[in-house]
From TrEMBL:
<dbReference type="InterPro" id="IPR020946">
    <property type="entry name" value="Flavin_mOase-like"/>
</dbReference>
<dbReference type="Pfam" id="PF13450">
    <property type="entry name" value="NAD_binding_8"/>
</dbReference>
<dbReference type="InterPro" id="IPR036188">
    <property type="entry name" value="FAD/NAD-bd_sf"/>
</dbReference>
<comment type="similarity">
    <text>Belongs to the FAD-binding monooxygenase family.</text>
</comment>
<dbReference type="InterPro" id="IPR051820">
    <property type="entry name" value="FAD-binding_MO"/>
</dbReference>
<dbReference type="GO" id="GO:0004497">
    <property type="term" value="F:monooxygenase activity"/>
</dbReference>
<keyword id="KW-0285">Flavoprotein</keyword>
<keyword id="KW-0274">FAD</keyword>
<protein>
    <submittedName>
        <fullName>Monooxygenase</fullName>
    </submittedName>
</protein>
<keyword id="KW-0560">Oxidoreductase</keyword>
<dbReference type="Pfam" id="PF00743">
    <property type="entry name" value="FMO-like"/>
</dbReference>
<keyword id="KW-0503">Monooxygenase</keyword>
């Protein structure tokens, strides 16, 4: 493959996490003559799996579906820890010769599209030197996800300045934080909190998960016995492929059952929790959310480690509201005081669609809330721009793989017909709603900044792998897509 020139590429990929690395591999395979570069604002690849360093960090999806379709997951752990996932991503980089295409510490600031040239001019800041860099690209593929990688969400708690201990957000975990024999309070009830509790329990004097609202939690085995048997009998590739299809179906069936029969699903989950917790534990207080299953994402605990920590007496759960921080801990609205040496604010993340990049099209600023997403990957009215957003109700990477396949087919279509640009146009009269139709707090806080989705395909932001597979592996073009060639300059008089 031709190495990218310093200032011009066919495709500029933003983000060297699981989405960006996957997109680069598809490009390398499907379009070996196209030049590309991967821009990564941080100093290392891996995205989420390199950024977060808190104890016990792991996936909450099985790696047979969270992994790439083209690269079998061979580790015995199905619910895997971050170092194993990072090894997998770095292997993908090495096996596909992607390392020379990654430019670290390059943060994209803005991108301007010119219809005359059918190209993007992308302005970049070197995060290590502050030096400005400019790159021209025919296409932008934004694989930066939808989280703000600079700042997590931290509410302003009353009296937090009074607290004499240490306050930590999981997104900025100090390497030297010593919590041995310390009293720890983790504020939150999501995936991060239920990971931290068992991971820290053995070393901490005691650890408490303080939640305002419970979350649905289910145990899963860390190792998938069926998957490991299939790989042993059929080999890694065939065993992985079969396991992947099995788990895709399992994920979908669980989601559909919870959505269609929320009452029975709630009772089943409660029964599972009750069986794992100490006798007499107030399950309905701490493990019975007020919303239906899968209105927000279910939390997975591998090998029931959270319940073991609670049964062992090293961890506890408190459901209450914070009145104020004190010098020595937290006073709750019920009057209870939780003493703490360390408070971890596992209060969530912030959404930042397309990494906060300022986009313009022929000098016109692009307002994201005024756009509608086409096939889950293109912004209406924005040419040659793809974004990768995975599933919220299943493994993220399942959708990314389908998006990459469609993206490569679309490039082939443009080449075959001599086009330089393509964009989607939505009917202005089409009813819309926010892109992410999900009850999680990080989504609700960002609704006014999100692009929109329509009522049906191809404008619907589908959360079904099977629906997307039909849509994205079907015809490349439809009446919503418009194609063009670069405008030729007018001849001089």
């Amino acid at each position: 493959m031709t190495a990218p020139t310093p200032d011009a590429v066919d495709v500029l990929i933003i983000g060297a996490g699981i989405s960006g690395i996957g997109a680069a591999r598809y490009l390398r395979t499907e379009h070996p003559t196209k030049t590309f570069a991967i821009l990564e604002a941080r100093a290392a690849a891996g995205g989420t799996w390199d950024l977060f360093r808190y104890p016990g960090i792991r996936s909450d999806s099985d790696l047979h579906t969270f992994g790439y379709e083209f690269k079998p997951w061979t580790d015995k752990q199905a619910i895997a820890d971050a170092p194993r996932i990072l090894d997998y991503l770095n292997e993908t980089i090495e096996e596909n010769g992607l390392a020379d295409h990654i430019r670290y510490q390059h943060r994209v600031v803005s991108a301007a599209w010119s219809s005359d040239e059918a190209r993007w001019t992308v302005d970049i800041e070197r995060t290590d030197t502050g030096e400005p860099v400019r790159i021209s690209a025919r296409w932008i593929f934004c694989g930066s996800g939808y989280y703000d990688y600079d700042e997590g969400y931290s509410p302003d708690f009353p009296g937090q300045d009074r607290f004499r201990g240490t306050i930590v957000h999981p997104q900025h975990w100090p390497d030297d934080l010593d919590y041995k024999d310390k009293r720890v309070v983790v504020i939150g009830s999501g995936a991060t909190a239920v990971t931290l509790l068992p991971a820290m329990a053995d070393d901490a004097a005691h650890i408490t998960m303080l939640q305002r609202t419970p979350t649905y939690i289910i145990p899963l085995p860390r190792e998938d016995a069926i998957a490991n048997t299939l790989k042993k009998v059929l080999g890694n590739e065939r065993g992985y492929a079969l396991t992947r299809q099995k788990n895709i179906l399992q994920q979908r069936v669980l989601y559909e059952l919870c959505q269609r029969f929320p009452g029975p699903a709630r009772r089943v989950i409660r029964k599972i929790n009750e069986s794992q917790l100490p006798e007499g534990f107030p399950v309905d207080t701490h493990f019975n959310p007020p919303y239906n299953p899968w209105d927000q994402r279910l939390c997975v605990v591998p090998d029931a480690d959270l319940y073991r920590a609670i049964r062992g007496g090293k961890a506890s759960v408190v459901t209450d509201r914070i009145e104020t921080f004190t010098e020595t801990g937290i006073r709750l609205e019920s009057g209870t005081e939780l003493e703490a040496d360390i408070i971890v604010t596992a209060t969530g993340l912030n959404i930042k669609i397309i990494g906060g990049i300022d986009l313009t099209v022929d000098g016109r600023p692009v307002s994201l809330p005024d756009t509608v997403v086409y096939r889950g990957m293109m912004l209406s009215g924005v040419p040659n721009f793809a974004l990768a957003i995975g599933y919220t109700n299943a493994s993220w990477t399942l959708k990314i793989g389908l998006i990459c396949e469609y993206f490569c087919k679309l490039l082939r279509h443009l080449d075959a017909h001599g086009y330089d640009a393509v964009w989607a146009e939505a009917d202005p009269a089409m009813p819309t709603r926010p892109l992410l139709d999900f009850g999680a707090g990080y989504v609700q806080r960002a609704l006014d900044r999100l692009p929109k989705q329509g009522p049906k395909a191809p404008w619907l932001m589908s959360m079904s792998y099977y629906t997307d597979r039909r849509l994205l592996r079907g015809d490349v073009a439809d009446e919503n897509l418009h194609f063009a060639r670069a405008r030729q300059p007018e001849p001089a008089d």
